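Section handout 9: paired folding examples.
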Amino acid sequence: MLIRTQNQGYDHPIPSDITPASAYQRRRDWLRWMASGAAGAALAAWAGREALAQGAATTPRPGKLAPLPGAKSAVAGAATMEKPTPYEDASTYNNYYEFGTDKSDPARNAHRLKTTPWTVSVEGLVKKPVKFALEDLLKLAPMEERIYRMRCVEGWSMVIPWVGYSLSALIKKVEPLGSAKYVEFVTLADPKTMPFVGSRILDWPYTEGLRLDEASHPLTLLSFGMYGEVLPNQNGAPVRLVVPWKYGFKSAKSLVTLRFTEKEPGTAWNKAAANEYGFYSNVNPDVPHPRWSQATERRIGEDGLFAKKRKTLIFNGYEAQVGQLYAGMDLKKFY
């Protein structure tokens, strides 16, 4: 993604003895002074937009769950300038088939999920296999806010402020062997708390996978929260994967095992319908799903009568950051 920047819009010529940086600082000071006076309401909004342009984490908490703040991230592409999807939509319009197939089923049924105690096992081709308690994972690296676009393979999208840290922090901790080429992600499959586990929709437990270089990319997020709070159960509590340049189903929820392998792991939707859901599943407007186009998308929260669909971007708009991972690959063959 190429982050949009705003023209600084100086109204007067800049004297030769003032650098652009100092001029910009003077302008920000002037905005703050004016925002405290009679023109406060209008100029405060203006100053707020400029703060957002500088990458400040400004997402308000919904006040629903325990707080989990995240600092501003220095990772390139980590904070889109697009308006976040309302929390109410992001937490009630979900795909989480362990709790039902309708979009409202997860929010209705996921209260059964028990997220404490929770452990995540790391195994396979690593020097340091380990079983992390959730408390230890939370302390493994500093929490950051990442405002990512999320594109579902079904043709809809959201913008979600996640809280977590790059998965690479965990990967470095366990020291993969030279033979490790992939990471398999295994999710919880508990028929006592997940009423649809055991259904014929998918092969349970739900599994996903990434190449090791994809998993190690700084944008690949191990997420523990969203909107400044811990994850709601229906959004994958207590810990999930977020891979913003891939279709949403690649971001496995409620993780219990990470397994480092030499061979490409089988993944849930690829096993269910390989002709529809490839292993890579990178967002690509030029590769249609067999039953619908991927050229455009419907942004949830913009469902008005005259709302236009958005054009879908290659790699969901993160081409500048991740395109090199696929240099020389046929993206229609490796879909």
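Moving on to protein 2 of 2.
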Amino acid sequence: MAATIYLHWAATAYTWVRSGLYHSIIRGDGQVQRLHSYAVDLPAHTWRRNSNAIALSCACMGGRPDPWTIPPTPLQLEALCQEAAAVARSWGWDAGAITIQRLMTHAEAAANRDGRQPHDNYGPVIWGGTGERWDLLQLEKGGPPTGGEQLRQRVRQILRGEAGAVGAAGEVGAAGAETAPAPEPLQFVRSSAIQARGEPLATAIDEHGSSWALAAELLERYGLGFEWDGQRRRILVGALDVVPLFREDAVQASVGWPLVEITLQQALAPVILRGILREGRAWCRVLEFAEEFGISASFDPFALAERRGG
């Protein structure tokens, strides 16, 4: 199939995060948890539609017996559209490319609303299906069954740089006359250095006091082989003993810099951590790198010791 982005809800609580099912999961507070590289196929997010596809999912709709007791939040829907727009940009798509054939909800995919007809209709009953999947058919309880088009319209607005956000009731606002401001880039206030394995390591200190270092220098210091994929802004690391922590405070798009992902070189390529592209090179937070790669750290002064395991 042609490259496609599928939008889901996970039928869970707002804090649910699990790798293997979706490429990214958006928590109830709008935090995007990037779990797998967008360059790999996952096996089971959208029936018979998993090849050349990306799955983004909101952790919501897990209420029992009424799923609408845990509805999609405005922050989730906004983050979902922002992430879909970021993927679209990385693939060279403009607003005109955002059609149902390229970006659709699981409800629409299940009902073959894109016209591809790769399977029986297991989508919403109102579309002649069995009702097994109806993800994002509606964005609010009792709302119109136009969730997919509402989300596509918001993604188009983002790609055009127009104002308009997902409102409290889940509806996509109309495009306004003003341009939506881009996030202010995280500021770096000074250069510094720490000790890493007994040798100086150059760092940059951001406005919040966090230390950042060049990802390549950290990987080389700890003997971790890697390859740089510039087209996808991804560092592939050759390590077999790392289990990603999927941190809640992982670097988000709101940092204002182009994002870089550090991922493993294996079939499902789980993302270890996210960094930024600054001055043409990939940087990551030093402490986050240490925690993900099992490196001992001490404080006052901040220093990294040996790698004790992932």
